[in-house]
Amino acid sequence: MLVLPIKKQWFDMIISGEKKEEYREIKPYYDKRLGYLTEGTGKITTIILRNGYSHKSPAVKCKCTVEIGEGKKEWGADPDINYYIIKIIEIMEVQNVN
Question: Residue 1 contacts by C-beta under 8 Å, 6 or more apart in sequence?
């Protein structure tokens, strides 16, 4: 299962349901991890977004799809740049959040 680090601001917005997408730059590192999910349409995968690097850090397990496109500025994307867009379909589990 893919685990991706995420900043607290975005993590909190995802937990609250306000933010429905997370973005990653299109680079070889993410091509290997996310690129195969953009082939075809509608592939659903499970991704853990973790606010930190420790296995004890707050985390959210989500059902997601991945596509390529422009993100929303209010959710951290720069304008006119394509990203891997991790679209959150469902929050399955929240871990280590007080």
Answer: 46, 47, 48
